[in-house]
Design goal:
The chain is α+β, with helices and mostly antiparallel strands. The chain is 43% helix and 17% strand. Strand 4 and strand 5 form a beta hairpin.
Length: 273
């Protein structure tokens, strides 16, 4: 779950809906300067579906020790911490399922999700918030992901429906970075981030170079991107969210009841150059 604070409570966005927004960004990506991803359908699937494995978990929102919705929030942008708040074994099982339910059908899309998961739990994870026994579980999970990625690379290499360039490590790396970029832009959107940021990695250009895209908030869920990576001069994207009244909750059951009592509403993010 992701959360965005309001005057009277929280907007809650599920992981799959956040990922689908990232997929919408990816579908609009590319112009005279920025390279459009190919194989398009398979890259877009990996980006849009990278959190589909969270559906069951997000149906049961829980609270933190402070009584707030347990969710990715503005204070967690740029880091991955607070592991003491979660059941790590269950969490890793969800992460593994999110990779495999896509990879079983499309190794290319699944490879991008596994790379995203691995990066999240290595480059960005705060290991100091994980108990020693949890670190053993985490390191076993990371080793399993490395092994699985080798299997996926072999499947991609043998896939004659892909052009040779599309199978290259550098191309796959570029698509992983696009997933990271669109995921991060969606995260900034879903928590209404209010500080300057960027999209994590240098992103490929049509001339063979790369560029880092900077993100400047200029209003509520309104961001200016520079350099501009989309074909159109301005975009409005929508995504579903549910509003729950109250800042803290007595227990997770109360939060879950409030979440399911409210219909999903459409919120808008505006992107400008």
């Amino acid at each position: 779950m992701l959360r965005m604070e309001s005057e009277t409570g929280w907007w809650l966005i599920t992981h799959p809906d956040h990922a689908h927004l990232a997929g919408d960004f990816a579908a609009a990506w590319g112009n005279a300067q920025f390279r459009t991803p190919e194989p398009r359908a398979r890259v877009l699937k990996g980006i849009a579906c990278h959190d589909d494995g969270w559906t069951a978990r997000d149906a049961h929102p829980s609270i933190t020790r402070q009584g707030k919705p347990s969710a990715f929030s503005t204070e967690l942008v740029g880091k991955y911490s607070a592991f003491e708040e979660i059941d790590l074994e269950e969490y890793l099982a969800v992460r593994d399922r999110a990779v495999r339910i896509i990879a079983d059908d499309d190794p290319y899309a699944g490879m991008l999700i596994s790379m995203h998961t691995y990066n999240l739990l290595t480059a960005h994870a705060d290991r100091s918030t994980i108990a020693p026994e949890g670190l053993v579980l985490l390191d076993e999970f990371l080793e399993q992901q490395r092994t699985y990625q080798s299997e996926l690379r072999a499947a991609i290499a043998a896939d004659d429906s892909l052009a040779l360039r599309e199978r290259e490590e550098q191309t796959i790396l570029e698509h992983f970075r696009l997933l990271q970029a669109c995921d991060n832009l969606s995260l900034l959107t879903c928590v209404a981030y209010e500080k300057p940021a960027h999209l994590l990695h240098p992103l490929p250009l049509n001339d063979g170079g790369t560029a880092e895209v900077k993100v400047l908030p200029i209003g509520p869920r309104h961001f200016r991107l520079s350099p501009w990576p989309f074909a159109e001069g301005e975009w409005n994207f929508t995504f579903p969210a549910r509003h729950v009244e109250g800042k803290v909750f007595a227990d997770s059951q109360t939060l879950e009841a409030a979440f399911h009592a409210r219909p999903a509403e459409k919120l808008t993010v505006r992107l400008s150059q």
